[in-house]
Write a structure and sequence with these properties.
Blueprint: H1 5-8, E1 28-32, E2 37-42, E3 50-55, E4 58-63, E5 67-71, H2 73-86, H3 91-103, H4 107-120, H5 125-130, E6 134-136, E7 139-144, E8 147-150, H6 151-158, E9 163-166, E10 170-174, H7 178-203, E11 212-217, E12 233-235, E13 242-246, H8 258-272, H9 286-299, E14 300-301, E15 308-309, H10 315-322, H11 337-341, H12 347-364, H13 374-386, H14 393-400, H15 405-419
Parallel strand pairs: 10-11, 11-13
Antiparallel strand pairs: 1-2, 1-5, 2-3, 3-4, 6-7, 7-8, 9-10, 12-13, 14-15
Helix pairs in contact: 2-3, 3-4, 4-7, 7-8, 8-9, 9-12, 10-12, 10-15, 13-14
């Protein structure tokens, strides 16, 4: 890694960049056909006619037809993860990735990558200095708020005061192993890349311009559970605007239902916005929110820190669960989030989770020879989540083109096949 004086003099904590006012972020660069260059942040690159670019306190609108060239943070994130996955077994190449990310304005990702490297090799002086660490004798001191601490002291302090690590679209607060949590944050960032790749255009997703906050807990006992059973949950704005999960087991690879939780945050930041100000448990359309989160949980797989999307996994048990008790889809679509998915730990709650997951996965499946449902379902997602047109059966029937009762039989046939019946 080149000993750039600027890099070696960097002494801010990992979360500092993400806490800068959004109006100071001018990293997206749009060149128009007349040669004019507009810098700022693109609110959404999926709108057909005009892009809105946030620039300080201003909103600048440009016609899509006039855009000659675009240099977007979103595209650089795709390239970052392509390089990271390609060179995951090369420490030297990942060190170059720190330089590359810095040169592209992905400061938090550069620091996150440097942090992963130094947590694996405490002798890497370049990475220590890039992160603003100071050497005292043989020990390196890490910034932690207004203090400089050894890693051992920092890890001990985290037990009472969670440490915040910032990425591009997510930030993570943790009270246990930094390496585990740095890798969990990489997984969340890859989830966001996948989310935009798979749904950005169809759902006209807005960009995440302020990191989604996630907090992990070192065990289920420390985790402030939402219902009878410890289960990850997200509290949307205007309430906590925070997702919570925990580690479990003697040697956990990543936090429980990490991709489910991250998807909840992405749904509210890229589509939904805020919920009822009077009720932190209110949700716009619970079964779709749970279903999409579980769909992403099933497709994101791979080693910690290097997750990638694949075919949905562990589907047989979910299919068996969804077949329980003669479940009918009319029961699913108007369920409340807290009462039906979190409050109790019983068979009915388990069936609700399985049914939401499997119905969503089936509707999104574009490989079905019959019953092509993906385009209509994507339209339904926008209708109920972005446009807030309600989760009634009437809305479902209208947008999907036929009564929900007519989906029962083909869905159950598919469930039985997946379950191995």
């Amino acid at each position: 890694m080149a000993k750039n004086p600027f890099l070696l003099g960097t002494a801010c904590s990992l979360g500092l960049l993400a806490m800068l006012p959004a109006q100071n972020d001018l990293r997206d660069r749009i060149t128009l056909s007349n040669g004019r260059v507009v810098e700022g942040r693109v609110r959404s690159q999926y709108t057909a006619d005009q892009w809105t670019i946030l620039q300080g306190g201003k909103r600048i609108r440009v016609d899509v037809a006039q855009i000659a060239k675009k240099e977007l943070v979103a595209d650089k994130m795709v390239k970052f993860f392509k390089r990271r996955h390609q060179h995951q077994n090369s420490k030297r190449a990942l060190g170059y990735l720190v330089d590359w990310a810095h040169s592209q304005g992905l400061e938090n990702m550069a620091r996150l990558q440097a942090m992963e490297l130094v947590l694996q090799d405490a002798t890497d002086e370049n990475m220590h200095r890039f992160l603003g660490h100071r050497k005292r004798g043989k020990a390196w001191l890490w910034p932690n708020g207004n203090k400089m601490q050894t890693l051992a002291k920092l890890q001990k302090t985290m037990l009472n005061r969670p440490f915040r690590v910032a990425g591009e679209r997510f930030a993570l607060r943790c009270d246990t192993s930094l390496l585990l949590n740095v890798r969990a944050l990489f997984d969340l960032e890859q989830l966001a890349v996948t989310w935009f790749e798979q749904f950005g255009k169809d759902l006209e997703l807005a960009e995440v311009l302020k990191p989604i906050e996630i907090q992990t807990y070192r065990n289920p006992t420390e985790f402030p559970k939402w219902g009878f059973r410890p289960r990850p949950y997200f509290e949307p704005p205007p309430h906590a605007d925070l997702g919570r999960t925990f580690y479990s087991g003697p040697t956990p690879e990543r936090p429980n239902d990490l991709f489910f939780l991250g998807t909840q945050g992405l749904l509210y930041r890229t589509m939904i916005g805020q919920v009822n100000q009077q009720n932190s448990r209110d949700r716009v359309c619970a079964w779709v929110e749970v279903g999409l989160g579980m769909h992403m949980q099933q497709i994101m797989q791979g080693p910690s820190g290097f997750a990638l999307p694949g075919k949905p996994r562990k589907m047989d048990m979910l299919a068996i669960g969804a077949l329980g008790r003669g479940y009918r889809l009319t029961h699913l679509i108007h369920l409340p989030m807290y009462g039906s998915f979190y409050l109790t730990d019983d068979t009915a709650t388990g069936v609700n989770w399985s049914a939401a997951s499997m119905f969503t996965t089936w509707l999104l499946d574009d490989t079905k020879k019959k019953d092509k449902t993906r385009p209509a379902f994507l339209n339904y997602i926008r209708t109920v989540l972005a446009d807030r047109q309600g989760d009634s059966s009437t809305t479902f029937d209208r947008v999907m083109g036929k009564p929900i009762e007519q989906f029962d039989e083909p869905w159950r046939v598919w469930l039985n096949k997946v379950a191995g019946n």
